[in-house]
Design goal:
This protein is an alpha+beta fold. It has helices spanning 8-23, 46-68, 81-101, 119-140; strands at 27-33, 36-41, 105-108, 111-114, 116-117. The protein has one domain (7-31, 40-70, 82-140). Helix 1 packs antiparallel against helix 2 (46-68) and helix 1 packs antiparallel against helix 4.
């Protein structure tokens, strides 16, 4: 795998994607008591965890296919791929930011407990911001060299 084919935007998207995936396993919200501790990780939240992950996976897959598989043609979206990256990256970052801002609580049998933010949520936010920055850079320079540009022909 030749990493020299990757632009700075691609590296931000792929690195942020890996970091976001790792953060999904870390605690996002939790509580520490004298009886023990409990925590929720990113997999426990569909809108705040799964949805940004799916957006980031789409971005990463498009980068990997376009850079490392020149014979593979991707379908043309209604907007350019660079704009898809910008929108998906910004949406993922905004969703995770909302997950951070909006308090989380657990309720059972009419008894509710406010949960504290944990390290995984902050790592997820940083990773999503890195992916959004990669999408922004990709949108600013959509004509960066692409190995598989969808034409089906090799660049040499």
């Amino acid at each position: 795998m030749d990493l020299s084919k990757l632009t700075t935007a691609d590296k931000l998207i792929l690195g942020g994607g890996i970091a976001f995936l790792i953060s999904m396993f870390l605690p996002w919200w939790g509580i520490d008591t004298q009886f023990g501790d409990a925590a929720n990780n990113g997999w426990d939240y569909f809108l705040g965890g799964w949805l940004p992950l799916l957006l980031i996976v789409v971005m990463c897959v498009q980068v990997i296919i376009s850079r490392f598989s020149p014979d593979t043609t991707l379908p043309d979206p209604p907007v350019p791929w660079a704009q898809v990256h910008l929108i998906a990256g910004a949406a993922a970052a905004a969703i995770v930011l909302l997950r951070l801002i909006i308090p989380s609580d657990e309720c059972a049998a009419g008894f509710c407990i406010d949960l504290d933010r944990e390290v995984g949520l902050f790592i997820a936010l940083l990773a999503a911001l890195a992916v959004a920055a990669g999408g922004f850079l990709k949108q600013k320079d959509p004509d960066a060299p692409v190995v598989g540009d969808g034409t089906g022909s090799a660049p040499f």
